[in-house]
Predict the 3D structure of the following.
Amino acid sequence: MRSSFLAALWLASASWLSLAPLGCGRAKSVVPPPLPATSAVASAREPANVAPPAASSSSPIVAAPPPPACPPGRKPPVSGAREIALDGRTRTFLVDYPAREASLDEPKPAPLVLAFHGWGGSPDQLERTTKIAAGINARGWIAVRPAGIDKSFNAGACCGQASKVAVDDVAFARKIVALVEEEACVDKKRVFSTGFSNGGFLSHRLGCEASDTFAAIASVGGTFGFAACAPPRPVPVLQVHGARDAVVKWDGTPKSGWSSVATVLSTWRKIDGCGDDEPTPIYAHGNVKCTRASGCSAGSELILCRDAKAGHTWPGGPTSTGQWGSQDLDATSYLLDFFARHPMPGAT
């Protein structure tokens, strides 16, 4: 059973899996499961293609004051590889700093985004297929791309060697943030996590277990691989998922301990204090519809972007083409816009 389970996870033929290397390896082409019915969170209506407003009318987001300036005279940091010693292992990550436009004598705090690759992927591969670091740097933000143990992260039941030996990737993420804060001018109230597939699973875990560090999270093609989620505050969450994903299935894979998208949404809806009314359509283009849950508390947001025909892919990525790819949503820009709306509560 174990071998068949792993084989199913390594479905990655380019004929149907546009971002296969991020979530799994190579295998023969397979026919995706039947198109699932639209979730209760995805509206059946066809709204105009509009960008989401800064806040829902029922849960206004109070603009955070600007962060304090960092001490002058700080040596400008250099992009590149870093190492961290953790639990007897040497962990690595890449950090990409934006071009310095302001005077180095008065550095301004910059938001920080951690972007995690999928099972079988790597930091470089994540960038080739998503351009996430380039998108982050274009906004003057700091990008970090961590490397998993044996190309995997521990997000509970997902995935690979990291999950098998119970690597503490929550501690890894926290330590990365602390190290970058030591060498650069980081806006500590604007630290975020995103990722594809296994990296999306981990981002959900960080939202559940490290909401004191991460202001908001976004998952592309990843659900829950754990049962308990009890952060001490509402956490803004963006879920992007292909309805025909045959790796991380829309309806979940119970025998693997991987939840459905519906479970992700219902869990975060309760945590974020959202209402039960029909979600509000906020974006529609081609096969993609994005909806926002109603009445979330404390300025939080819960958004689902569902691509009706996409498979296991990062929408808008340069390799997200072909039958199961998608160019109907620029997931990178969309999630960064989402992060920009959601600093940590009480940001100063």
Remarks:
- Residues 169-183 form the longest helix (15 residues).
- Confidence is low (pLDDT under 50) at residues 1-63.
- DSSP finds nine helices and ten strands in the chain.
